[in-house]
Specification:
The chain is an alpha/beta fold. The protein has 15 helices and 13 strands. It binds nicotinamide-adenine-dinucleotide (NAD). This is UDP-N-acetyl-D-glucosamine 6-dehydrogenase.
């Protein structure tokens, strides 16, 4: 049995070396936070190019300034691809992807490969924390046996926790420190050490009774969003048919001071979390003979949104005496949400593919994505169109898919021939603007 108090004390005195495995949207802000409060941080990633960039003081994520990375480099942050160095770390915080495979089932390969990669270098006195979003049971079923494989005993000489990340990239109102952090330990000792790790960096740590409860908490949060967005997307279709503006209705309902939370409709779900995470629970629930009907239903409604937007585009062109085939269409905003450069699961990309499949000639404009990046399943040899008056007027239609603040909405309204607005940016009814 190691002296647990000594481990706790190492975090409290900020003498511990924090290891962050997976230096992405989640891992990097966490690294910066620990660095800012005086911890040495070792970042471990399999991607040599990211590691080189970070070690050179550069950033590869738009909303994380390079100045922050270079400052961290000067004050105790280092990145490496060498997993052997995991043994130096007192905490190993895993922030690796948890996507779905092509059958829309959890792809646990990143979590498993990472755990296998650090496994030979685990030692007594360490705490291992999984932050990746995942189904209830992952920590117990996948991490626990691997962590104990070499003879270490969780809760006695090594500690295992699950603490979901709640990062909201691009949201200026919250930062790592001010977002309360839920944490579940495999044993009470694990929880105690885990709290000591996180309470240095986060204002409010919220302990729950198990790693499973913590895993399910994160899924509930994201399922809540997916289901409510599905609901409001369905309401949008009904409102549209009845000649009612759904955005006006949501804003009016949101004046109720209790019992209502506003969610806004859009062209579909995007990002690494909301379209994906709910299906982690769907998959696991099947093991228990249960069907997650709300998740499936909202998934169905949300996944139909790009087709709905396409239908509105075709209606608008039709009214102007045009077919989509051969028309030039400009998609505004291809990041999955406003003011970020993240294109993962973006519904804009699906809309672009649908336009192309119908014979339309598609282009895009996005101030955050200057060149269409190489994506695993989609590709367009395109770069962002400049939003000049002349260029806007040259397209048969524009589809407003992501409402970045950087767009000049007055110019778009004045110059575009037809606007298909999936974000409720244009509230006053105008002949050349269609709500989608
Ligand atoms: N992006 C968000 O807003 C957000 C918010 C909350 C939770 N999450 C969850 O956090 C987790 C990470 O998401 P992300 O957006 O940071 O992903 P990301 O793709 O931005 O970053 C993951 C990093 O892990 C690295 N990596 C992959 N395999 C590895 C391995 N075997 N060993 C070490 N590093 C490896 C990748 O190179 C990459 O740098 C996911 O489970 C996600 O669901 C993400």
């Amino acid at each position: 049995m190691t002296d647990m108090n000594a481990v706790v004390e190492k975090f409290k005195s900020r003498q511990a070396l924090i290891g962050i495995v997976g230096l992405g949207y989640v891992g990097l802000p966490l690294m910066l936070r620990y660095n800012a409060i005086g911890f040495n941080v070792l970042g471990i990633d399999i991607d040599q190019s990211k590691v080189d960039k970070l070690n050179a003081g550069q950033s590869y994520i738009e909303h994380i300034p390079a100045a922050n990375i270079s400052k961290a480099r000067e004050t105790g942050f280092e990145a490496t691809v060498d997993f052997k160095r995991a043994s130096e770390c007192d905490a190993l915080i895993l922030c690796v992807p948890t996507p779905l495979n092509k059958y829309r089932e959890p792809d646990m390969s990143f979590v498993i490969n990472t755990t296998d990669a650090i496994k030979p270098y685990l030692r007594a006195g360490q705490v291992v924390s999984l932050e990746s979003t995942t189904y209830p049971g992952t920590t117990e079923e996948e991490l626990l046996p691997r962590v104990q494989e070499g003879g270490l005993v969780v809760g006695e000489n090594i500690y295992l926790v699950y603490s979901p990340e709640r990062e909201d990239p691009g949201n200026p109102n919250f930062e790592t420190r001010t977002i309360p952090k839920v944490i579940g330990g495999h044993t009470p000792n694990c929880l105690e050490v885990g709290i000591a790790l996180y309470e240095q960096a986060i204002d409010q740590v919220v302990p729950v009774s198990s790693t499973k409860a913590a895993e399910m908490t994160k899924l509930l949060e994201n399922i809540h969003r997916a289901v409510n967005i599905g609901l409001v997307n369905e309401m949008k279709i009904v409102a549209d048919r009845m000649g009612i503006d759904i955005f006006e209705v949501v804003d009016a309902a949101a004046t109720k001071p209790f019992g209502f939370t506003p969610y806004y409709p859009g062209p579909g779900l995007g990002g690494h979390c909301i379209p994906i995470d709910p299906f982690y629970l769907t998959w696991k629930a099947r093991e228990y003979g249960l069907h997650t009907r709300f998740i499936e239903l909202s998934g169905e409604v949300n996944q139909a949104m790009p087709e709905y937007v396409l239908g509105k585009l075709m209606d608008g062109l039709n009214d102007a005496g045009k077919a989509l085939k051969g028309s030039r269409v400009l998609v505004l905003g291809i990041a999955y949400k406003k003011n970020v450069d993240d294109m993962r699961e973006s519904p804009s990309v699906e809309i672009m593919e649908l336009i192309e499949a119908k014979g339309g000639v598609v282009a895009y404009s996005d101030p955050h994505v200057p060149v269409f990046p190489k994506m695993r399943e989609h590709h367009f040899e395109l770069s962002s169109e400049p939003l000049t008056a002349e260029n806007l007027a040259s397209f048969d239609a524009v589809v407003l898919a992501t409402d970045h603040d950087k767009f000049d909405y007055a110019l778009i309204e004045a110059k575009a021939k037809l606007i298909v607005d999936s974000r409720g940016k244009y509230r006053t009814p105008t002949a050349h603007i269609i709500k989608a």
